[in-house]
Amino acid sequence: MESALVSGLQGLFLGVLSLRPEHVIMILIGSVLLYLGIKKGYEPLLLVPIGFGAILVNIPLAEMMGKGGFLRFFYDTGVLTEVFPLLIFIGIGAMTDFQPLLENPKIILLGAAGQFGIFLTLLLALALGFDKLDAVAVAVIGACDGPTAIYVSSKFAPHMLGAVSVAAYSYMSLVPLIQPPIMRVLTTEKERQIVMGVAKRQPISKTTKIVFPIAVTIFASILAPKGAPLIGTVMLGNLLRESGCVDRLKSASENEITNMVTLLLGLCIGATMEADKFLKGQTLLVLALGFVAISLDTAVGILFGKVMCVLTGGKINPLIGAAGISAFPMSARVVQAEGQKYNKKSYLLMHAMSANAGGQIGSVIAAAVMLSVLQGMGIVGG
Amino acid sequence: MDSWTFGWTLALIGMTGTMLVLWILSLLILLLKKIFPYQPEESAAKKG
After folding, report:
1. Using CB atoms, which residue from A111, A215, A377 is nearest to B9?
2. Which residue in B29, B30, B34, B43 has the most chain A C-beta atoms within 10 A of its own C-beta, making it the best mutation to test that interface?
3. Pairwise CA distance, residues B17 & B14, whole Å
4. Could you report the predicted ipTM of this complex, rounded to two decimals?
5. Does the distance separating the beta carbons of B33 and A208 come in below 8 Å?
6. Which residues in A lie closer than 8 A to residue B24 (C-beta atoms)?
7. In whole angstroms, what is the distance from residue A292 CA to residue A274 CA?
8. How far apart, in Å, are the Cα atoms of A39 and each of A32, A265, A269, A355?
9. Are A121 and A370 in contact (CB under 8 A)?
10. Digit-coded pLDDT (tens) for A175-230
């Protein structure tokens, strides 16, 4: 009887006895993510489930990510198969209005320049000793697009999924703090004062809006076939939006499906933050490189904006180049606010929205091009 | 393939490829706007 009592009590305290300092640190990190999401409002839809997932997975002996564990099931089903980020892409497509881009298609090139940070960060990551595919996963933080970063990371470097996702979503929410100083350093006051005027709204036919996602899917997927899942899902969502005949599917994509998958994806990302995998020097490097990637995106976008400014005889304000990233519409708003600081008559919002929509497509295309080049180089299988 | 060759190849083709694909998409948009121009009746139909 006495030994049974002792064994019973031991079982009750086994969790406490198994608690190690690294578990405590990770539970604190999870709590910080919850604080940032709930109290500070930084990407709460993602940071709250990620933070909670990080706490759950670091409870000793709970075996959440063990064989048959409840988080392991969702991770294997939705993340390893890449289904979760792709479902989110359908929702993003359903929520995105490409009208500003259709009105001003040349601005899409700013969306390409805004992705160059990905490739420059890749070189930096390789120089710092990252393995080839790990470097690709880190670099894609520069897409400034959470689902793209998750898609590429889960494909090539699942062990880094937690760090990459946390970096991607944290920096996306910090765009209003990261971009303005870079804008000021890289442009002259005269350039920041350039008035582009109120963009004239060009009517776009309904047929163009419907054919656009279909044509982009076909052309871009043929050019970069490995990216077809990314491009196809975004454009499918957009087709649901523009076709006007499947309102229930559109509504489900941007609400129920996106909400449910966001919850499960967030939990799964948190679940990859197990102490022994997350508490490494490499995690700090990933966070630092993520910051560098987004800064470089902004810098190259602005420099490309300066080139366009010269080529157009000073008609383009280089600040809109900073909006060539995927953080929509936050980045466009930052450009508008910054432009207004230097010239009250400057209304850059609609122009920046065009660049921002270009950045959304650009991030997906950059990842698609990257995947196809990796396949062509024989680094990943066909 | 060593890391540097890999990195530079991917960076150069990646940047050029991204720019090229998006430039083609901008031409595609212009083409779509030419083929399917906006008809003023569309706005009338919307109001109606």
Report:
1. A377
2. B29
3. 5
4. 0.86
5. yes
6. 219, 223
7. 25
8. 10, 21, 21, 31
9. no
10. 888 999 999 999 999 999 999 866 667 789 999 999 999 999 999 999 888 889 99
Amino acid letter for position A112: A
Buried b (16+ CB within 10 A) or exposed e, A241-261: bbbeeeeebbebbbeebbeeb
Give contacts of A202 with chain B, Cβ < 8 Å.
38
In angstroms, the CA B39 to CA B22 distance is 27
The number of beta carbons lying within 10 Å of the beta carbon of residue A200 is 8
Cross-chain residue pair B3–A219, CB shorter than 8 Å? no
DSSP state of A272: T
Helices marked H in A224-342: 228-243, 247-252, 258-271, 275-278, 281-311, 330-342
Please give the model's pTM, rounded to 2 decimal places: 0.86
Cβ neighbours of residue A72 closer than 8 Å, sequence gap 6 or more: A64, A65, A66, A271
